[in-house]
């Protein structure tokens, strides 16, 4: 029999939710396996030898989770910043502190091998992760360009007077292009085909109204619900978790069990809704004390981004020195486990000795600058 929502004490308020941080870590690990296991199999001494029967990790679900979680965090953490004139700059500074230090560190290895391809223009877009450009030295960095596009527009949405209309326009334009299906959108809103929107997006930055934004919007809705509906009990959270899990599993079965992104107009919105409900339900259960993961989950989440962005350059360096290595099947399994352990240890070292200390320093600098500006105005 399910206990009442009040039978357990509510979890203490926390800046981070362990359930979602653990999900972040698992998503990063899936992406790492997507790249590492095929690399391991290239070192087989005989054709047909593969670890785990040639299983291919479903990397798409990891990226989908990251995008939904990003929207969730943006809405739940910055709901009180809407309408504040200085909010966009503070928001962009914090996002830059999060994204760039580990990314720039990760660029060191590929630049060593690929420096001949650098030109001033390409270097600028490479180091800034410009959402208007393509071409990366690090395989997972393509998703960061979408994140930068999300952050650019969402930061503007925090502005007073213009912010909320801009957010509504951003969502409507994106849905006009992609979901919930062109025919339904045209029938309900009497809109013409989005030829002009598609043309402008193609010319000036498709990532700003990409179907990937639908994952971000679903996360925004879930984060808004989490911040506003604090009275929703554990029973409601359990129902959301179950419904989100069922919908996500149904969609995963139609998307190669997480290996495909699916059709933008139909499958993407459903997958995004499933993940958003799952995140909202799990966050609610943790808020009400039904899930207790402890600080270890938060630490695992902290190393997810360095793991996500650093593993590809480290694999590049590995391949440069070990291309000719040929191993038996047993040795391949040993290599797969030792290699994963090495990647996790490297990510942990970067996280706790480089990334987090640097983020703290940058954020202190940002707060100090803001205080100095406020004092000067006073």
Structure commentary:
The protein is an all-alpha fold and 378 residues long. The chain has one domain. Helix content is 70%, strand content 0%. It contains 14 helices and no strands. The longest helix is centred in the C-terminal third of the chain and has 49 residues. It is globular.
Report mean pLDDT, rounded to a whole number: 90
- State the distance separating the first and last CA atoms: 60 Å
Inertia-based shape: globular
Number of strands: 0
Order of helices and strands: HHHHHHHHHHHHHH
* Uncertain residue ranges: 1-14
Rg, please? 22 Å
H/I helix tally: 14
Proportion of beta-strand residues: under 5%
User: What is the structural class?
Assistant: mainly alpha
The description of the largest β-sheet is: none
Binned, the helix content reads over 70%
Outline of the structure:
The protein has 378 residues and is an all-alpha fold.
Topology:
Blueprint: H1 18-41, H2 59-78, H3 87-114, H4 120-128, H5 141-157, H6 163-178, H7 182-189, H8 195-204, H9 213-228, H10 234-254, H11 267-287, H12 295-302, H13 304-322, H14 329-377
Spell out the key features of this protein.
378 residues
